[in-house]
Every structure is written in C-alpha cells, then in structure tokens.
Design a protein that fits this description.
Length: about 375
C-alpha cells in the first residue's frame, strides 16, 4: 500500500475530534448517561466488549462503550489497546467450571439432566414485543425473581457425567504441562492447536462466528449438533504467587460455557461416540458461546476424518478472518489517502483503454 502524508490537516483533525465528541454527547439538554448505568443496564453489550476485548473489567468495558458511542467493535478496539499497557504478573490457574455458582443451566439434549434445568435470566421465552413501560422515566424497578423451590445442586454435574458410565462422550485430553498458546503475544501459526483455535474464537467477532455456525447447520459443513449444555454463572479465579507456592483465590468472573454434541460413527481406532464442540466467553454471552462451540467442532474435522469442503471447516480462513478489530481496521483503512495508488491505477486503465480502441480501429492508427 502506498500512502502520502497529509499536510496542513492538523486543525481539521482536531475539529473532527471535537465534532465527534459533540455527536457522542448528543443533545446537552438530555442528561448524560453514566458509566455505571451502562455497566448495569447495558450489561450484555459490556459482556461482549469484555469477551472480544480479552479483558475482564466491567467498568473499563462500560467506559469504552460510552466513548465509542455504542459502536461495539470500536469499544472492543479501545479495550484491547488499553490492555496492552497493563503489566502482566503471571498466569492464573485454569478455572473450574464444574464448580461454577450456576445462575442458568439448560440442556436441549436431556430433559432430566443431573442437577436439573435452571432457566435463569433469558430472552428465550419473551414475546419480542416492545415494552413501552421502559420508555417512561422513573418507571418502577422490576420485582426480584422468586427463589427456586428446590436448592440447586452444587457443584452442579456437567454433561460429561451423563455419559460417564457408558463412555459415550469423548474425553477432554490435556495438551500437556506446557503453558497454553498466547495469541496476544505469539503470532498465529498453522496447523493450529486447539488452544490457539479456542483463543482466536473467544476473541472473534460474534456476528462472524454466528454466520459461520449458521452456514454449517444449513449444509455448508457437516456440523448440525445438539446443545448438550449451556451454563452461566460465577467461577473462582486462582493464582499462585511465587512467594507462597500454592493457589489463592483472587476473585471471581462471570462466564458462559457451552458444549455442543455431534455424533461420530467411529473409525478403526475409535469406537462410535459423541464428539463435542466447546465455547467459553466472559459474561452472559450465550449466542457467542454457542456459535463458538459449533465452529470449534467444525474445525476439528481432521480428528474425525471429515473433508474440508466448507468455509467453516477451513482453519486458516476462519481464524485469520474472525477478529473484528483486524477486519474493521483493514476495511476502514481504505478511507485513508491512497492518492498514489489511484493515480497508478488511473494511468493503467487509460493505457488499457487506448490499446483496446487501437485494436478495434487499426486502420485509423495506420492513417494517422
């Protein structure tokens, strides 16, 4: 790409920034929205920014949403940029989602799954009708949800426990004692290990992954799974300080976990069983976690002997193009000056046109 410097535009850029700030603020007569309001009342937007920004900080994500005027990819970019300035003290221990303090847990595969179905907070059963009561200033807050009639099981069994006695579900295998791949510090490489793939999908654009998952379900791929389990809740985060040598709990995070089940007819080495795709995201992010799990299973096609005949099964296509920060930057950079590029293309088109007409009218050229 060829760029040329823009001279004398500093004042124009400053004015553009000021104008943008005015547009973001809107009518000064309307009370400004506070970061705390965004954090508490636009929580799903905040969760997406945390998940794709790879930084669990609700206040920071809410601030980014406000600064970006609600443009979530821009807010994600802001969070990632800030994240690069933070010191790193080490890596936490793997979180144990089996010991999640569950707020929502459902399974579409088993009605009577061990631990029970817990509907929790969900849009699934709403009628999608506009609630104009929300437009009324000072509307009464909703009544608190009633407590469950029966105490929830804790720790709540996972979908794997349903199949444990028959070995019908593949087992997760640890990749080893080495530290997992760190996509924020290491360049992407292929073929990608599952740790790298899952990191890329966790940071990937929700809309892109949703479209890929949808394409696979409609036949552009071989993955049309059943939802084995979705769970939402809080898990403890543990860290091992060097001076102590044992793990201590430093906090907890809200996570959404999804496991999708797909049949596997078996091979000469493996008996038929269910395989699974896995999705995990910060906050309440069911659509993201489900899409991630479907795409993860599609990308495991070589493990089960499937051909890569669809975009969702192409590892390099999916992982290289799933990041919305990179995709947005590459598309939007076309707004920057490309005057030299265009002049070169312009001269080329003019020459090709001249040669085209000369071929059509050779007698006119000879006469001249």
């Amino acid at each position: 790409m060829a760029y040329v410097s823009v001279k004398g535009g500093e004042k124009a850029i400053e004015n553009a920034h000021q104008w943008l700030a005015e547009e973001r603020r809107g009518d000064p007569a309307v009370e400004e929205v506070a970061v705390a309001q965004i954090r508490e009342q636009l929580s799903l937007a905040v969760d997406r920014v945390m998940a794709e920004g790879s930084c669990y900080d609700r206040d920071l994500a809410a601030l980014a949403v406000k600064q970006a005027g609600g443009d979530l990819p821009e807010a994600i970019f802001l969070v990632r940029a800030y994240r690069t300035t933070l010191p790193r003290f080490g890596g936490s221990e793997p979180v144990d989602t089996e010991r999640m303090n569950v707020r929502r847990r459902i399974s579409a595969a088993f009605k009577d799954i061990p631990g029970g179905q817990v509907l929790g907070p969900t849009f699934d059963y709403t009628h999608r009708l506009l609630d104009f009561r929300l437009a009324a200033d000072g509307a009464a807050p909703p009544e608190p949800a009633p407590l469950a009639n029966e105490p929830q099981a804790w720790p709540m069994p996972t979908i794997g426990s349903v199949f444990a006695h028959e070995d019908l579900l593949e087992h997760d295998v640890r990749s080893g004692d080495d530290a997992p791949f760190d996509l924020t510090r290491e360049p992407m490489s292929f073929p990608a290990g599952r740790d790298q793939r899952l990191q890329a999908l966790a940071r990937g654009d929700e809309g892109f992954l949703l479209s890929l998952a949808y394409s696979s379900q409609r036949g552009w791929g071989s993955t049309h799974p059943l939802c084995g389990e979705i769970r939402l809740g809080e898990v403890a985060v543990e860290f091992i300080p060097e001076e102590l040598g044992f793990p201590i709990e430093i906090g907890e995070v809200t996570l959404t976990e999804c496991q999708m089940l797909s049949g596997f007819a078996g091979s000469a080495q493996k008996a038929p069983q269910f395989t699974r795709g896995y999705g995990l995201a910060f906050g309440h992010s069911e659509r993201k976690a489900m899409s991630m799990a479907i795409v993860d299973r599609a990308l495991r096609r070589s493990e089960v002997g499937e051909d890569a005949d669809a975009p969702v099964q192409d590892e390099e296509f999916v992982l290289y193009h799933s990041d919305n920060v990179e995709a947005s930057g590459f598309v939007q950079h076309l707004k920057l000056p490309h005057y030299v590029d265009f002049q070169a293309d312009l001269q080329l088109v003019r020459r090709l046109r001249r040669e085209h007409f000369e071929r059509l009218n050779p007698s006119k050229e000879a006469a001249e």
